[in-house]
């Protein structure tokens, strides 16, 4: 096992600590926080870590391989970069940094509708390999136009988000008056002054904007008008009627993200989705909800032969990825881990974080005597 990362930061927690020092407080807290009292944020990782794996030391070892096939595409590792909104506010140019790193490592990068790079720019960087996550637009024309742009950009997978029927209640963001672009209150200016790398990079790359949504936004909106525009433009509350036209229109693979119940899994199968991501948005929406590993186990047991089941929320390490896959997920995603990487190391952050997770996961496979990630369920201690 050769480390393929900067050995000064051998864990996501090192990156998180460094990112906290380099990012303005309002940006770090937006990234790091869950909702309400952060109960489900912590539960995600804690309960995932109750999963234990069994090694086989005396077996013939023929090498281990992280390569994973998903929707007919071979990726170099069984994890991808989850869609994250407002990325350029947290670290300037971060969607492009992460998309490039994902492309170089041959793993999926999923672009959020509400992040700060456009579908077209990310498609160019990834040569049409990036996935796109759709926040459900209230107006049919807008929905159709965004879907057509994702198709023209050759996105292989469209991810439809279902777990934001209403804004998550996040006390830190309320306290910080979080806004896009950031409100330059005296408090925020003081925070920015203490973070020179963030400030200089923001000067270099300019104020972050919702690049994918720009063509639909009236020019010169003030903050209040921007909030109103967002509220009117999206209706996150999905139902079968709203999903059907998307399935009819989208010829590529279609994934439902934010699934936490058997009922929604059944609906996803009925509506013709190719996959689901069992997710609770990294504990940012329902503090009284379950950790994702719990519904994953139930959903896998009943539906794994009917739909491709993936998972995110709470995964921070190679062992966490192995635990998730041993529990039956076909693929995993992470949101915060990659953003901590970019916050800590800027341009090198994506490459470092992917290299670190690959190295950790490779070590686990070698330790277990597990040839490929699809064999991980054989090592699950039930
Ligand atoms: C700061 C932040 C912003 C997010 N924005 C979006 C988004 O715009 N669209 C989306 O589908 N999910 C969004 N998510 C959820 C992630 O896609 C993913 O489900 C979550 O981060 C997984 O949990 P983890 O951060 O513990 O890995 C966001 C998550 C974070 C942390």
Fold blueprint:
Elements: H1 12-22, H2 25-32, H3 39-48, E1 68-70, E2 73-75, E3 79-81, H4 87-90, H5 94-105, E4 110-112, H6 119-126, E5 131-134, H7 140-152, E6 157-161, H8 171-176, H9 186-193, H10 196-205, H11 223-233, H12 240-249, E7 253-259, H13 262-270, E8 275-278, H14 293-303, E9 308-311, H15 318-326, E10 331-334, H16 336-345, H17 349-368
Parallel strand pairs: 3-10, 4-5, 5-6, 6-7, 7-8, 8-9, 9-10
Antiparallel strand pairs: 1-2
Helix pairs in contact: 1-16, 5-6, 5-17, 15-17, 16-17
Flavin mononucleotide (FMN) binds next to α2 and α16.
Give a structural overview:
- This protein is of the alpha/beta class and 382 residues long.
- It contains 17 helices and ten strands.
- It has helices spanning 12-22, 25-32, 39-48, 87-90, 94-105, 119-126, 140-152, 171-176, 186-193, 196-205, 223-233, 240-249, 262-270, 293-303, 318-326, 336-345, 349-368; strands at 68-70, 73-75, 79-81, 110-112, 131-134, 157-161, 253-259, 275-278, 308-311, 331-334.
- It has an eight-stranded parallel β-sheet. Strands 1-2 form a two-stranded antiparallel ribbon.
- Helix 5 (94-105) runs parallel beside helix 17 (349-368), helix 15 (318-326) packs across helix 17 and helix 16 crosses helix 17 (349-368).
- The protein is globular.
- It binds flavin mononucleotide.
- Residues 30-31, 82-85, 112, 114, 133, 161, 257, 279, 281-282, 284, 312-315, 334-337 line the site of flavin mononucleotide (FMN).
- Residues 30-31, 82-85, 112, 114, 133, 161, 257, 279, 281-282, 284, 312-315, 334-337 line the site of flavin mononucleotide.
């Amino acid at each position: 096992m050769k480390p393929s990362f900067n050995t000064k930061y051998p864990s996501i927690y090192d990156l998180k600590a460094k990112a906290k020092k380099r990012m303005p407080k309002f940006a770090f807290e937006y990234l790091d926080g869950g909702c309400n009292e952060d109960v489900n944020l912590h539960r995600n990782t804690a309960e995932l870590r109750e999963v234990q794996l069994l090694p086989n030391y005396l077996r013939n070892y023929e090498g281990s391989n992280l390569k994973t096939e998903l929707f007919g595409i071979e990726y170099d590792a069984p994890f991808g970069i989850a869609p994250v909104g407002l990325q350029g506010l947290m670290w300037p140019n971060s969607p492009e940094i992460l998309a490039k790193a994902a492309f170089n490592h041959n793993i999926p990068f999923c672009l959020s509708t509400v992040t700060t790079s456009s579908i077209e720019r990310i498609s160019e960087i990834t040569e049409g390999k990036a996935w796109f996550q759709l926040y459900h637009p209230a107006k049919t024309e807008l929905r159709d136009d965004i879907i057509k742009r994702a198709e023209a950009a050759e996105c292989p997978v469209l991810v439809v988000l279902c777990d934001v029927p209403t804004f998550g209640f996040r006390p830190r963001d309320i306290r910080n008056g979080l806004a896009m672009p950031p409100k330059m209150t005296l408090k925020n200016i003081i925070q920015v002054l203490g973070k020179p790398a963030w400030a200089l990079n923001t000067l270099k790359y300019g104020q972050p904007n919702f690049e994918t949504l720009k063509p639909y936004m009236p020019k010169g909106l003030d903050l209040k008008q921007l909030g109103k525009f967002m509220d009117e433009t999206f209706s996150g509350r999905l139902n079968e009627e709203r999903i059907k036209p998307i399935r009819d229109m989208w010829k590529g693979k279609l994934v439902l993200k934010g699934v936490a119940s058997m009922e929604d899994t059944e609906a996803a199968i009925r509506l013709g989705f190719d996959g689901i991501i069992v997710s609770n948005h990294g504990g940012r929406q329902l503090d009284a909800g379950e950790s994702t590993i719990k519904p994953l186990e139930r959903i896998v047991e009943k539906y794994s032969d009917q739909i491709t089941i993936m998972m995110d929320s709470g995964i921070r390490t190679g062992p966490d990825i192995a635990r998730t896959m041993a529990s039956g997920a076909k693929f995993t995603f992470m949101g915060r881990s990659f953003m901590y990487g970019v916050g800590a190391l800027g341009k090198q952050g994506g490459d470092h974080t992917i290299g670190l997770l690959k190295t950790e996961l490779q070590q686990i496979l070698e330790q277990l005597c597990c040839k490929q990630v699809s064999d991980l369920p054989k090592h699950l201690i039930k």
